[in-house]
């Protein structure tokens, strides 16, 4: 049964509802077809996305609008009871010269009441001035209501401003590079090998004599010579995907981020994902608590495979109170390792449906990317995140993974060019989330960045941001070069568009 309160409000076209009522809680309270809860919610979302100037301007408009509205109420009440409002010791409108002066006096009473700063020359009547105070009950009620609304409005504005300040305070003061780079082939070689290769001297006389000797050989002799010469198999490292982050407060005292962590997730359409990634994403999730296991002191083997760190982390799981043979223990050990690997794959890959039919929006798979250093204990200047595109990377196509496995984990020579590397990588978006603790106030800070497929530059590497500043040679960071790239060692970079103007959002190819 409806309460008497709801029935009374329904007479004036007002419907009420609680947050536990069925339906949308924002639309549960309506007045003349208007849902104030929805309006307040929309305003809050807009306020957190807008600038301080825009929010301050909107609050000023609301403040003046409400004070003018209450001033009109005072003018209506003062027409019948002018003795209930006093202006400089006389009744309201007694010394007035017209409508605008009456409105000005009513507005003065309204804003002093709304802001609760205290009455001045314009104030409501009291019993010491007007004996029949009961006739001024209307003005007294409106003044009381306006002061209450003013307190609520001041609290609301303070809460919005505090929320915006807290949100800005929780944002990590970092800059993400606008582009990602992919180095492959000779560009992935360590710098010491690159230097050795660049500084290597070639004996010109030996090279010329060898060339002249090869020219004197016949075709059959040259073919026999090439067949007898052992062919060296190139062991090319897998490409590396990189992006970098710069700490804006690198030169400020206490600007470091403590215990910073990077969480990187790739968003891949199911139509682009490899078969192994689809299988891992569709695997059912296990529910319930894991089975209790204990470590056995008996050694399972002496080879390096049994003493590897990965196997030590997942020791043999033998139920307590059961004696097993060495073969059974070894079988259960491998079984537990396989189960742990499958559980890790299920947790690293998740699939979500936005369209049940899959015709409009394909099924999306979110796969976690492993990088070299996902944690930074003391992030002060520059952080470069690297992801290796090997057979375990969810960004590679199924064909590329098979070729890498057949090549014993090395990148195949036939895919060692920028077109083949780009064709071997498939993803829709890479989502990066950084979290840590500010060294200034010990508050939690975070930042996010999204990279699309067309923001990847193949065959390039980043330009160094560090330089020595001043006569003492203090290490400094130039954040304006965060997007500057140079063609990788050995060349092979894809054609890029060179920006005409420099800036944080531009990219310069050196």
Structural class: alpha+beta
Low-confidence stretches: 18-23, 195-211, 288-322, 500-510
Chain-averaged pLDDT = 77
Q: Can you count the helices?
A: 13
Q: What shape does the CA trace take?
A: elongated
Describe the structure.
The protein is an alpha+beta fold and 510 residues long. The protein contains 13 helices and 20 strands. The strands form six sheets. Strands 9, 10, 11, 12, 14 and 15 form a six-stranded antiparallel β-sheet that branches. Strands 6, 7, 8, 13 and 16 form a five-stranded mixed β-sheet that branches. A three-stranded antiparallel β-sheet has the order 4-3-5. Strand 3 and strand 4 form a beta hairpin. The longest helix has 34 residues, at 137-170. The termini are far apart. Residues 18-23, 195-211, 288-322 and 500-510 have low confidence and may be disordered.
Sum this structure up briefly.
The protein has 510 residues and is of the alpha+beta class.
List the helices and strands and how they pair.
Layout: H1 4-11, E1 14-15, E2 30-31, H2 36-49, H3 52-80, E3 85-87, E4 90-91, H4 99-115, E5 122-124, H5 137-170, E6 174-176, E7 180-183, H6 191-199, H7 204-215, H8 219-228, E8 240-247, E9 257-269, H9 275-282, H10 309-313, H11 326-348, E10 349-352, E11 364-368, E12 375-379, E13 382-388, H12 398-406, H13 418-424, E14 429-438, E15 444-452, E16 456-458, E17 460-462, E18 466-469, E19 474-477, E20 485-487
Parallel strand pairs: 7-16
Antiparallel strand pairs: 1-2, 3-4, 3-5, 6-8, 7-8, 8-13, 9-11, 9-12, 9-14, 10-11, 14-15, 17-20, 18-19
């Amino acid at each position: 049964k409806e309460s008497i309160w709801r029935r009374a409000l329904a007479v004036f076209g007002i419907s009420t509802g609680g947050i536990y009522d069925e339906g949308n809680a924002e639309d549960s309270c309506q007045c003349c077809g208007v849902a104030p809860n929805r309006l307040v919610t929309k305003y809050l979302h807009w306020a957190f996305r807008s600038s301080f100037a825009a929010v301050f301007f909107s609050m000023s408009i609301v403040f003046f609008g409400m004070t003018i509205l209450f001033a009109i109420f005072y003018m209506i009440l003062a027409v019948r009871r002018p003795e209930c409002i006093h202006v400089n010791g006389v009744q309201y409108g007694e010394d007035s010269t017209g409508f605008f002066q009456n409105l000005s006096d009513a507005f003065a009473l309204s804003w002093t009441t709304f802001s609760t700063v205290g009455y001045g020359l314009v104030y409501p009547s009291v019993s010491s001035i007007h004996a029949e105070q009961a006739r001024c009950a209307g003005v007294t009620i409106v003044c009381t209501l306006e002061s209450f609304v003013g307190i609520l409005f001041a609290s609301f504005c303070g809460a919005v401003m505090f929320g915006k300040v807290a949100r800005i305070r929780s944002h990590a003061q970092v800059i993400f590079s606008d582009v990602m780079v992919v180095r492959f082939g000779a560009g992935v070689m360590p710098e010491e090998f690159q230097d050795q290769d660049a500084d290597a001297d070639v004996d010109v006389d030996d090279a010329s004599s060898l060339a002249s000797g090869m020219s004197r050989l016949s075709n059959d002799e040259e073919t026999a010579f090439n067949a007898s010469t052992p062919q060296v198999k190139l062991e090319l490292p897998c490409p590396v995907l990189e992006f970098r982050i710069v700490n804006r407060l690198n030169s400020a005292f206490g600007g470091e981020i403590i215990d910073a962590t990077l969480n990187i997730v790739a968003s891949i359409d199911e139509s682009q994902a490899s078969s192994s990634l689809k299988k891992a994403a569709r695997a059912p999730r296990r529910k319930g608590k894991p089975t209790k296991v204990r470590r056995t002191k008996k050694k399972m083997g002496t080879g390096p495979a049994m003493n590897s760190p990965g196997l030590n982390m997942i020791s043999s799981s033998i139920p307590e109170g059961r004696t097993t043979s060495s073969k059974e223990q070894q079988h259960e050990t491998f079984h537990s390792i396989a189960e742990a690997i499958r559980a890790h794959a299920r947790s690293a890959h998740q699939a979500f449906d936005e369209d049940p039919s899959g015709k409009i929006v394909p099924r999306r798979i979110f796969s976690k990317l492993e990088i070299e250093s996902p944690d930074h204990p003391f992030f002060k200047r520059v952080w470069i995140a690297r992801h290796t595109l090997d057979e375990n990377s969810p960004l590679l196509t199924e064909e590329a993974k098979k070729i890498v496995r057949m090549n014993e984990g090395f990148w195949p020579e036939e895919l060692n060019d920028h077109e083949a590397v780009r064709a071997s990588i498939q993803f829709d978006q890479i989502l990066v989330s950084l979290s840590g603790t500010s060294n200034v106030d010990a508050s939690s800070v975070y930042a996010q960045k999204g990279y699309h497929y067309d923001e990847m530059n193949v065959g390039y590497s980043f330009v160094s941001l560090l330089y020595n500043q001043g006569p003492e040679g203090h290490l400094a960071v130039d954040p304006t070069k965060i997007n500057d790239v140079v063609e990788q060692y050995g060349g092979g970079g894809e054609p890029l568009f060179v920006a005409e103007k420099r800036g944080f959002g531009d990219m310069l190819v050196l």
